[in-house]
Amino acid sequence: MCVSTLAALIVLAACSPTPQPLAVEAGSVPGQPAVGGTTDVAIEQPPTTLSAAIRIRAAKQQLATSIGDGRAPVSLAFAGDTSFHNSLHLYSPLEQVTPWLSRPDFTILNLETAIASPEIGVPPVQKRFLFRSDPAMVDQLVDAGVDAVSMANNHALDFGPSALEEGLGLLSAAGIETVGGGVDAEAAYKPLIRTVGDWTIGIAAFSRVPCDWSWNGEKVRPQVAWACPAFMAEADAVVSALVEDVDLAIVMVHGGTEGQLCADATMTALNSHWADLGAGLVVNSHPHVVQGVSSVGETIILNSTGNFAFPPSFGLTANSALFLATLSEQGLFITVEPMVSEAGLVRSGTPQRRSSILAQIDAYSDGWRVLSDGRVLQDNSWNGLCSAEVTDQ
Q1: Which of 283, 333, 280 is CA-nearest to residue 308?
Q2: In a designed cystine with 35, which of 318, 358, 367, 386 is the match (CB 3.0 to 4.6 A)?
């Protein structure tokens, strides 16, 4: 792989692309400090009214065009746990952040709910939290610019297969693609392969929670793709094939410890496993708090995307973000757009709150620094608060 430093940015027009891009490593030029301290890794960009997390795509596209780069960069956006239960749809929770969701070339979030009419479906198991969202949610996702959703999570089957099937039909009819859930195991494990600009991206999605039912290996919940020990062979086959077929293979996993700011031992091991299989980017959810950025070899890990439009979010669980990955011939460039999700209503937030969210992500990152404008740059000397903490799940 031919990868330039960030100081050079995009200068190697003759580089030959390979299926999985390397992480972009920071050069050493003066620039904006990291939120949690000082660093000299940054790139200069022209002033603009757009946030750095959104404008990076336009800046790199202009550079690519000017030097005749083979393929123009594209931007991919990842949002966290989303459910419109408790009648959240009545408050249009994504309306104020639609410009951020609709600008990237491809936007996907974790849909952690059944979408079905009240008369459809019954809970297959009794548990404390059951999420059902009004079908009006689908139109609001479309209006906000969401392109796809992951259904691989512990709430997709809250009201059984019939409710899941209705939601899948509503999403498909509206033009929103799905991954990680389906009418049967074949559909659930099928990866999402999408052409974005001149690039082919592939997404495989799995749930790691709950796994307590699955130790005997019986496929009693075949409508969701699982990364549980009993079904890792199926998951591995999907990811291994995906790596060979696309420019960027992305693995989305729903798992981890709720409320914890560091990835637990189970997720840390899984992240390394996907990296070993050749995934270029791993995006995790489920802890309901935003965690940091790390990497395994050349694979970038977004350890937890936290809550997005998810009631009732408050305090630490209301610290939200849109994670963006710019894919170019030189690799991946990560940026973060901090947001606030008070009671599930997503907003941009005050400057002070936005800074605190970036500082949180920076503090719990390892080998990566989050700058005060949202850019995420590799710094192998940075050991965040999670570097010595791995908690068993």
Answers
A1: 283
A2: 358
pLDDT of residue 317: 98
CB 110 within 8 A of CB 78: no
- Residue pair 265/392 in contact by the 8 Å Cβ criterion: yes
Q: Where are the domains of the chain?
A: 52-383
CATH code, residues 52-383? 3.60.21.10
Q: Give every CB contact of residue 65 below 8 A, 6+ residues apart in sequence.
A: 72
Q: For the chain, give the mean pLDDT.
A: 86
* CB neighbour class for 200 (10 Å; exposed up to 12, middle 13-18, buried from 19): middle
| Coil, strand or helix at 318 | helix
Query: What is the sign, positive or negative, of the torsion defined by CA atoms of 288, 289, 295, 301?
Result: positive
Whole-angstrom distance, CA of residue 384 vs CA of residue 258: 20
Three-class HEC string of 47-88: CCCCCHHHHHHHHHHHHHHHHCCCCCCEEEEEEEEECCCCCH
pLDDT of residue 261: 98
pLDDT of residue 126: 85
User: What residues does 76 pair with on adjacent strands?
Assistant: 106, 325
Of the candidates 169, 130, 146, 160, the one whose C-alpha atom is nearest the C-alpha of residue 222 is 160
Per-residue pLDDT reduced to its tens digit, 72-115:
999 999 999 999 999 999 999 999 999 999 999 999 999 999 99
Spans of the chain below 70 pLDDT: 1-69, 389-393
Q: What is the rounded CA–CA span in Å between residue 226 and residue 327?
A: 27
Give me the pLDDT at residue 387, please: 87
What's the whole-model pTM score? 0.86
Q: CA-CA distance, 148 to 107, in Å (whole number)?
A: 7
